[in-house]
Amino acid sequence: MANPTVRVLTLLELLQTHRHMSGRELAERLGVDRRTLRRYIQALEELGIPVTTERGRHGGYRLMPGFKLPPLMFNSEEALAVSLGLLAAQGLGIAETAPALDTARAKLERVMPARLKQQAQALSESARLELPSARAPGDERLLLLFATATQARQRVRLDYRDDREQHTQRVLNPYGLVFRGGRWYVSGWCHLRRDLRSFRLDRIAEATPLEASFDRPADFDPAAHLARSIANLPRATAVSVRLHTDLAHAVEELGRHIGVFTPDGSAVLLHARTDSLAWFARQLARQPYDFEILDPPALCDALAQQAARLQRLAVPTDRWKMPE
Question: Domain named HTH deoR-type: which ranges (predicted)?
Fold first, then answer.
């Protein structure tokens, strides 16, 4: 917190949050000495924010009773960010939030200047984000429960139904939430399987926070773990392909959901599993860069069939011939 402006704003937030704080407490929270703290208090007073000073053994600082800050003000970039965030939230599959999105948008527009209000309304009425549609209804209660448990490092007991309709009770150390392919997932350490696992929220019948806590791995990426888990699902055939392009281009063309991408020098290795080599061959056939099929050989045959089909379709027919 090296910036003095940031410290002044943090001081204001502390005074708003706590009814009364001593000079020692404020100085420690801001990481400054008492003299610097008094300069920050003076800066708030010069901005018209009434800070009262109470002297004595139990003295300290507080905002004048009844003082309220004026409404939030946004610049153009902030208004755009908030409006896009509200649009994106509409596609997250949480039905309970739909009315809240409308009321939140209305409240924000009420405190915006006329020009920003008009821009926000125009974006809301005319823009649409092509995000993956929610394929399963989200549960606001479960979403908040796992988000809170993840932040608090708190274990959760859950009743889970898998894709074979088998019901099990698990104890999970939740490491993070991911919205992928129209569904919400929670990833973490499963005590029953003694391994990392990901669970679809729409298959969780009940969840209960426990008192036990845990340590979350500092470098854990729930989105990357989920991608690896889905790529390694027990589908019929494992596939390995070397893509002669960079990582960003490979992900852009094939989509992150198809498998696990790993940089390999000037190329990218793609590892995936599929139940249809013909489908996988079609995905490769549309790529604008070269590639090598490493495994399985049957994928080469499937790609050759796609090439033969395209070559057949590329032959002009009689109806394209010009009359003499």
Answer: 4-63
Backbone angles phi, psi at 292, to 5 degrees: -125, 130
Q: What is the mean pLDDT of residues 82-100?
A: 70
As a dihedral over the C-alpha atoms of residue 30, residue 36, residue 37, residue 42, rounded to 10 degrees, the angle is: -130
User: What does the alpha-carbon distance between residue 168 and residue 162 come to, in Å, rounded to a whole number?
Assistant: 8
Q: Specify burial of residue 283 (Cβ count, 10 A radius: 0-12, 13-18, 19+).
A: middle
Residue-wise pLDDT tens digits, 234-260 = 788 999 999 999 999 999 999 888 888
Q: Give CA separation, 130 vs 20, 134, 142, 232, in Å.
A: 48, 12, 25, 27
Report the alpha-carbon distance of residue 156 to residue 173 in Å, rounded.
7
Average pLDDT over residues 17-44: 87
Q: Which two tokens stand for residue 92?
A: 């997250």
Chain CA centroid to CA 131, Å: 13
Cα 49 from Cα 67, distance rounded (Å): 8
Q: Which residue has the higher pLDDT, 15 or 2?
A: 15
List all residues 6 or more positions away from 228 whose beta carbon is below 8 Å from its beta carbon: 260
